Amino acid sequence: MSTFKQHSILPGFNLALGFTLLYLSLIVLIPLSAAFIRTAELTWPEFWTIVTAPRVMASYRLTFGASFAAAMVNAFFGLLVAWVLVRYHFIGKRIIDALVDLPFALPTAVAGIALTALYAGNGWIGQFLEPMGIKVAFTPLGIFVALTFIGLPFVVRTVQPVLEDIEAELEEAAATLGANRWQTFSRVIFPALFPALMTGFALAFARAIGEYGSVIFIAGNMPMVSEITPLLIITKLEQYDYAGATALSVVMLVISFILLLIINLLQWWSRRRSSKT
Question: Which domain holds residue 259?
């Protein structure tokens, strides 16, 4: 007969585990299962027709493609920002460090309005970009900009503590063994940062997939062009098509779960590999 193994000498494991499972069930499992139950009212042909409609497929490509691209950009620049904040001392460092958290605190609607005002044809930045043929507002590029804005803090705040814990002695030891700066970074520092970087990427990617408020203002919401899947879900809800809305929600949920599972498996593999070396 198998039993749970208690890994702590402190009492209360069974009670804490029970509260944890209860809390997760109330907050996560029951609401998600409700979406699956409501979708089960549809027959398979009806479900397939809803989730594979041309307009819906275009929204999938835009939502997941822009989210992935924004998360990749944030992974690179988030690592760069975290490196500067940890490794260098300069005037205004605390201000920049506080600005990183601004997308966390700023309401998404406010972020969308601000980005639209900046990148519209008569905006502070858009008025210089459009004469060069670069239109940001009301295009898929605007969605990418909005998703990059809201996802940056997830990477920076995930990588920054790990970078702070890396001892400078490791770099000095690598230098004494003849490694140059690039070899020290690629073989000593980056392997230690990679799991945290993957976690930040996953968080930024997941956040971007579900983003709605900041995107609808700058996207233009043109069907087949700049319409995201969350907007389609809201549209179906406004039309009282609850089964169709939950069908799209289930597809988004399943695809997001699979992608995040793959990323977490890669992260686990990286940690296991680094521990062996």
Answer: 43-276
